[in-house]
């Protein structure tokens, strides 16, 4: 889960250019990311601190104070953070984990169409390999252990088949030109 949170936090800051913690929280909340990941407000602030301590972001204290009290920290993504974002994004787009994949889809427009096609093809192949493996598992009508339960295996086959079909649909939409890709942010650096 942590890499999905890191991806969401870095992506939010990159989209804005400079952002404070509450704006990152507002972005992620407005995207309803809590419905398709396990992201929580506390994990967002923890990720902001961790990313800063790892040199992925840098912060300055804002001169503009919109409310009484301490000044806000404003974050920008460093070069190291941009590299981390790209690695997390690429990893998420090939992941068979639904939450990771969902976070990747949220930022897929930050890559080129060709990169997205290649990553989705890679995910599709991994899912097809998983389907074949699952279908080959031994099953027993009265299973001697849970791994041989036909209902359990059936759940996983159905889940992975659905993921493969979803990946195929997204890939077809990308290939049909349905989405615009704005990869200018990273093109010169790859």
Automatic annotation (TrEMBL):
Q: Where is the Transcription regulator PadR N-terminal domain?
A: 13-85
| Record-linked Pfam families | PadR
Superkingdom to which the source organism belongs: Bacteria
Q: Which InterPro entries match?
A: Metal_resp_DNA-bind_regulator (IPR052509), Tscrpt_reg_PadR_N (IPR005149), WH-like_DNA-bd_sf (IPR036388), WH_DNA-bd_sf (IPR036390)
Q: What is this protein called?
A: PadR family transcriptional regulator
Task: Please name the source species.
Answer: Paenibacillus soyae
């Amino acid at each position: 889960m942590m890499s999905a949170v890191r991806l969401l936090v870095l992506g939010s800051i990159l989209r804005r250019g400079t952002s404070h913690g509450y704006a990152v929280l507002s972005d992620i909340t407005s995207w309803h990311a809590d419905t398709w990941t396990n992201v929580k407000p506390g994990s967002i602030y923890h990720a902001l601190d961790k990313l800063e301590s790892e040199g992925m972001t840098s912060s300055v204290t804002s001169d503009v104070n919109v409310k009484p009290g301490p000044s806000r920290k404003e974050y920008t993504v460093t070069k190291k953070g941009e590299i981390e974002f790209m690695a997390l994004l690429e990893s998420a787009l090939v992941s068979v984990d639904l939450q990771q994949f969902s976070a990747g889809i949220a930022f897929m427009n930050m890559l080129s169409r060709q990169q997205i096609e290649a990553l989705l093809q890679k995910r599709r192949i991994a899912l097809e390999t998983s389907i074949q493996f699952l279908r080959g598992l031994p099953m027993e009508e009265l299973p001697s252990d849970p791994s041989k339960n036909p209902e359990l295996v059936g759940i996983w086959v159905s889940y992975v088949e659905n993921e493969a079909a979803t990946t195929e649909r997204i890939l077809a939409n990308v290939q049909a030109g349905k989405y615009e890709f704005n990869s200018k942010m990273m093109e010169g650096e790859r």
